[in-house]
Amino acid sequence: MFSLSRKATPKTLILWSRLQFTVPISSLKVVWRKDPRLDQAIQNDKQWRLCARVVREVLNEPGQVIPLRYLEKRRERLRLPIKIETFLARNPGLFEYCMDRIKPKSDPVRFVRASDRLNQFLEEEQRIYSENEPLIVSKLCKLLMMAKNRVVCADKLVEVKREFGFPNDLLVNLVPKYPECFRLYGTPGEGKSYLELVSWNDNFGKSVIEKRAEEESRLMGIRVRPAFNWKLPPGFYIKKEMREWIRDWMELPYISPYDDVSHLEQASPEMEKRTVGVFHELLSLSLYKRIPVPVLGKFCEEYRFSNAFSSVFTRHSGIFYISLKGGIQTAMLREAYKGEELIDIDPLLVIKDKFVELLDEGHRQRVENIRIKRELVRKEMEFMAATSKEYDSDEQNAEL
């Protein structure tokens, strides 16, 4: 058996790999198992994400105002299970009604627009984006540095802005501010625009795994090899032959997602190592350390993913988890969660926290309004009862 030392020659590594991995990677299967804790992490975000969809729908309208009945017609597309009026009543901090005409000579109808509190939140959101602009630039650079030829379709980057915390004006305002980093070709929105990395930044060219190994080396005083954390939760089981394959695969040298891998064969174990590294880095860069699988699939060409890339997540179920919550496959990074809670919080998640505070404030207002109404009804009923009793007493006195 060949020893996997740091001084092993490339020919030795290739020969060792061929001896170890005689079974085609595509034939390796792992049965999917549900992880309730990680599923709950997605479920916890369901309500505020629903509210955010409705907010985006209104803000994307001309003048950021829309007739109530038009918004009601879009309820199915918004995946809103209740009527719009009911939704607005349950979330009073988001919108307000105003009367206007759809056409110049038509009768006034109810429109929906952002409330003052929502507008204050939007101003706060812009401030948070400005404060974290260096972080956003570094994320964008990293996405380009991992890509083939350091180029990514600009429209695809716009589509994943919510996964990575990019602002809405990413290509319009932020990219032009950094000509030393980015070059935009074509017109975004037409499907033929591309964002290219202008200059390589060594500070961004290290993955989360490499930085972790460096930190462990510094603390322990010995050199630590970059390696994936591979751990299954209690109750999960993998067959012996698959465990042996994973053990041998883990011993392969780590391949940085920022390295040039044009020389690697697509079906090789080394390419699998690199692909897992790219997914690990992409999920690490994302806000919630999870990304829907169809979203990742949009980048097959840029990151050299195979057509069957999604099987990587179940094959390496000690690193990733595939959740089926919400009727969509979502790839999650296991090590990023403790139970259902994120461990490392992205600074841009402050925006989400502020939005949830806005919703909570509206919910408290709704509860208080309900309490006041019930109190008024109770007092009115007491008054009517007292009045009725007094009236009955007067009648009895009159009879006497």
UniProtKB/TrEMBL annotation:
InterPro entries: PORR_domain (IPR021099), PORR_fam (IPR045040). GO terms for molecular function: RNA binding. Residues 34-363 form the PORR domain. It comes from the Eukaryota. This is PORR domain-containing protein. It comes from Fraxinus pennsylvanica.
